[in-house]
Amino acid sequence: MSFSHRHLLGIEHLAPTDIVTILDLADTYAELNRRPNKHSDALAGLTQINMFFENSTRTQASFELAGKRLGADVMNMSMQTSSVKKGETLIDTAMTLNAMHPDLLVVRHPSSGAVDLLAQKVNCAVLNAGDGKHEHPTQALLDALTIRRAKGRLHRLNVAICGDIAHSRVARSNILLLGKMENRIRLIGPPTLMPSGIGEFGVEVYEDMNEGLKDVDVVMMLRLQKERMDGGFIPSEREYYHRYGLDAEKLAKAAPDAIVMHPGPMNRGVEIDGTIADDINRSVIQDQVEMGVAVRMAAMDLLARNLRERSAA
Ligand code: CP
Predict the structure, then answer these.
(1) DSSP class of residue 259?
(2) For this structure, is 86 an active site residue?
(3) Which is nearest to 47 in space by CA: 81, 26, 70, 28?
(4) Which residues, including other chains, have CB under 8 Å from residue 43's CB and lie 6 or more apart?
(5) Taking Cα atoms as reference points, which of 143, 165, 147 lies closest to residue 157?
(6) What is the DSSP letter of 114?
(7) Alpha helices, DSSP H only, in 8-131?
(8) What are phi and psi of 181, to 5 degrees?
(9) Kind and range of the H or E run holding 108
């Protein structure tokens, strides 16, 4: 298997072959995760520390489960009760943990670039579990695996990413990944939620959902990232839902077999109608959660193989 990276910090550092390597291994872990005995010893003897400086349900739970299923010793740092609350810096916290010889450090942080900075200071492999508006690489990888399993391929698809693009690390990582795999990407949202210079990413930009969703194969909805907004970006949630919320009428513009995705957490009645989110014939939202565990197992397994090779050399 060819995957030579020391860390998983962003999709921007990955080649298409790296992406395929992770997804192929994740497919085997997806099968393992459906068996009664889900245990493997790929990470046996290794220590994994999860440091989440921002709230998380899916990412933290799936990294923890992934590490435990692979036999790692997993520790979840509670940032609410850590010395960060007494003013300790991110780097001092990381250096303190580094002295305890972890092998894998999983980090979520509200500041873009914080995880890259931390990776330069520690000896272990670092996985970015989402940093500010920058990247969320394992989310894009689990989305890619979900699309590949649902559509049978991960190239030459028309993918619409809809909503709050400007504040979304999920959008950024997905634009990078889907672009590397030669898909056609449409971004749909109000101009106030579209980042400046987005045209340089080789995407098509739409303001109108009915126009942008026409014949797409994949509809990826995004949450309004209110915690990253410092002003009024939309007139009201009611108006936003009317224009950009995915309902049956707007979804009818997409291809008849288009799948509906959402990274979660979802705001029903804001960016998506609850009936669409729960429609097992169209929505793959629960598959995304399932693939999240498999992708994180694959990513940590590959990084651990490189760690072991380096320490044996
Ligand atoms: N998709 C995602 O990152 O969800 P959490 O914030 O719950 O981890």
Answers:
(1) E
(2) yes
(3) 70
(4) 67, 70, 71, 72, 103, 104, 300, 301, 304
(5) 147
(6) H
(7) 16-32, 58-69, 90-98, 114-119
(8) -95, 15
(9) strand 104-109
Q: What would the two tokens of residue 156 be?
A: 């030459």
Q: How far apart are CA 47 and CA 57, in angstroms?
A: 21
| Residue 167 Rama label (left phi>0; alpha psi -120 to 50; beta) | alpha
CA dihedral of 139, 145, 147, 153, whole degrees rounded to 10: 140
Ligand 1 binding pocket (C-beta < 6 A) is 56-59, 130, 139, 263-265
Residue range 72-90, pLDDT digits in tens: 999 998 777 777 778 888 8
Q: Which of 7, 136, 148, 180 is catalytic?
A: 136
> Which secondary structure element, helix H or strand E, spans residue 107, and what is its range?
strand 104-109
Distances (CA, A) of 186 to 137, 224, 225, 303: 20, 18, 20, 32
The rounded percent of the chain whose pLDDT value lies above 70 is 99
The half-sphere exposure of 149 on its side-chain side, counting CA atoms within 13 A, is 20
136 labelled catalytic: yes
57: CA distance to ligand 1 center in Å?
A: 6
Instruction: Tell me what pLDDT residue 197 has.
Output: 87
Respond yes or no: is residue 167 known to be catalytic: no
Q: What residues contact 50, with CB distance under 8 A and at least 6 apart?
A: 60, 63, 64, 67, 74, 75, 76, 77, 106, 129
Give the residue-averaged pLDDT of 234-255.
94
